[in-house]
UniProtKB/TrEMBL annotation:
<protein>
    <submittedName>
        <fullName>Subtilisin</fullName>
        <ecNumber>3.4.21.62</ecNumber>
    </submittedName>
</protein>
<dbReference type="InterPro" id="IPR000209">
    <property type="entry name" value="Peptidase_S8/S53_dom"/>
</dbReference>
<dbReference type="InterPro" id="IPR022398">
    <property type="entry name" value="Peptidase_S8_His-AS"/>
</dbReference>
<dbReference type="InterPro" id="IPR050131">
    <property type="entry name" value="Peptidase_S8_subtilisin-like"/>
</dbReference>
<feature type="domain" description="Peptidase S8/S53">
    <location>
        <begin position="119"/>
        <end position="361"/>
    </location>
</feature>
<dbReference type="InterPro" id="IPR037045">
    <property type="entry name" value="S8pro/Inhibitor_I9_sf"/>
</dbReference>
<feature type="active site" description="Charge relay system">
    <location>
        <position position="128"/>
    </location>
</feature>
<keyword id="KW-0378">Hydrolase</keyword>
<feature type="active site" description="Charge relay system">
    <location>
        <position position="316"/>
    </location>
</feature>
<dbReference type="GO" id="GO:0004252">
    <property type="term" value="F:serine-type endopeptidase activity"/>
</dbReference>
<dbReference type="InterPro" id="IPR023828">
    <property type="entry name" value="Peptidase_S8_Ser-AS"/>
</dbReference>
<dbReference type="Pfam" id="PF00082">
    <property type="entry name" value="Peptidase_S8"/>
</dbReference>
<dbReference type="InterPro" id="IPR036852">
    <property type="entry name" value="Peptidase_S8/S53_dom_sf"/>
</dbReference>
<dbReference type="InterPro" id="IPR023827">
    <property type="entry name" value="Peptidase_S8_Asp-AS"/>
</dbReference>
<feature type="active site" description="Charge relay system">
    <location>
        <position position="158"/>
    </location>
</feature>
<dbReference type="InterPro" id="IPR034202">
    <property type="entry name" value="Subtilisin_Carlsberg-like"/>
</dbReference>
<comment type="similarity">
    <text>Belongs to the peptidase S8 family.</text>
</comment>
């Protein structure tokens, strides 16, 4: 481990046929309308069509409502009839259905929601580019900025995406995270351009310590370690915080050496590599003896922007799955230490190949929960 500091860290449809006295007929767009007819005026459909010269598309007998397409001018004409109770424009209704991203399904997280494990009450600090707190699929309960930008405005998108993988809400739309009821804290240590100083990251780590966080996710890294970073990570360990970090996106080294970035490379950190849908190492995922565990990180769909969703790839997308995993484990075992939780992850991981490329293997929720009493 080197002692020099780093210069910067990057984020890894009633057609109406009224006759009008006009010399020129212009084609107008029509829209669907519901036409409520007064009870005293309710007639058979044929009589209604004859009386109003309407091409009724559908008749709701019990509601005394007709459906047809009309132009704005035709609507205005019909509204003048005393037989009409109301006219309402049809609306587009979109399906609102929650999507379970492949990686969340792959690790079996949804099965634990029904068993009551959701990360409730667990505080997770996301040291990143901030979190877009206005996003309807996220519950951001607090945070701080160390780059002089609002921690609850993520102009980059990276931090919001990471946050969604950890704890997107289990509702009727969008996506769902690994620990949907965990408390998200936006600790902004990277600016909108995706970069930040070592100083801002150290401050973010100590904020997490001082605010009693349970889990800390760092989807960021540098090729160089430093004494001050090592000391900060050690302090987090002493404060019983499960520190999870992205291993990096440098891929394999041509010389066979380690490409794992810092702070993931520190011994007490859960260093996370990325796998694809076939459980193979994603080509971009860094390798080295410091690797702890693997998680799905290729083509990850999560929250993005103020109300959107985006697919991104990287160990930055794998790390938050493990952070969510840690939140579930801590909820199940409130008295287990951070190091014990880390060891549980290691002991229950599914081997995938050589440690240099896969660490101890793929994170396994089922196996880990079976180990915890």
């Amino acid at each position: 481990m080197g002692k020099r500091g780093v210069n910067g860290v990057t984020a890894c449809g009633f057609a109406c046929l009224f006759a009008f006295s006009t010399d020129v007929v212009h084609a107008e767009e029509t829209e669907g309308y519901f036409i409520g007819v007064k009870d005293s005026s309710w007639l058979e459909r044929e009589e209604i069509e004859t009386s109003f010269e309407l091409d009724v598309e559908y008749e709701y007998d019990e509601l005394k409502v007709l459906y047809a397409s009309m132009t704005d001018e035709e609507v205005a004409e019909l509204e003048r009839s005393e037989q009409i109770d109301y006219i309402e424009r049809d609306q587009v209704v979109n399906v609102e259905q929650q999507q379970v991203p492949w990686g969340i399904e792959h690790i079996g997280a949804p099965a634990y929601y029904s068993n009551g494990f959701t990360g409730e009450g667990i505080d997770v600090a996301v040291l990143d580019t901030g979190i877009q707190a206005e996003h309807p699929d996220l519950n951001v309960v607090g945070g701080e900025s160390f780059v002089y930008e609002d921690p609850f405005v993520d102009s980059n998108g990276h931090g919001t995406h990471v946050a969604g993988t950890i704890a997107a809400l289990d509702n009727d739309f969008g996506v769902v995270g690994v620990a949907p009821e965990a408390n998200l804290y936006a600790v902004k240590v990277l600016a909108g351009n995706g970069s930040g100083s070592l100083n801002s990251i150290i401050q973010g780590i100590y904020w997490a310590i001082e605010n009693d966080m349970d889990v800390m996710n760092l989807s960021l890294g540098s090729s160089t370690g430093s004494t001050v970073m090592s000391d900060a990570i050690h302090a987090a360990e002493e404060a019983d915080i499960v520190v999870v970090a992205a291993a990096g996106n440098t891929g394999a080294s041509q010389t066979g050496g380690s490409t794992v970035s810092y702070p993931a490379a520190y011994e007490s950190v859960v260093a996370v590599g990325a796998t694809n849908q076939s459980n193979g190492r994603a080509p971009f995922s860094s390798v080295g003896p410091e690797l702890t565990i693997m998680a799905p990180g290729d083509q990850v769909y999560s929250t993005y922007g103020t109300d959107g969703y985006q697919t991104l790839s990287g160990t930055s997308m794998a790390s938050p799955k493990v952070a969510g995993f840690a939140a579930l484990l801590r909820e199940k075992n409130p008295h287990a230490s951070a190091s014990e939780l880390r060891q549980m992850m290691i002991d229950t991981a599914m081997p995938l190949g050589e440690h240099h490329e896969y660490g101890h293997g793929l994170m396994q929720l089922e196996a880990a929960f079976g180990e915890i009493e």
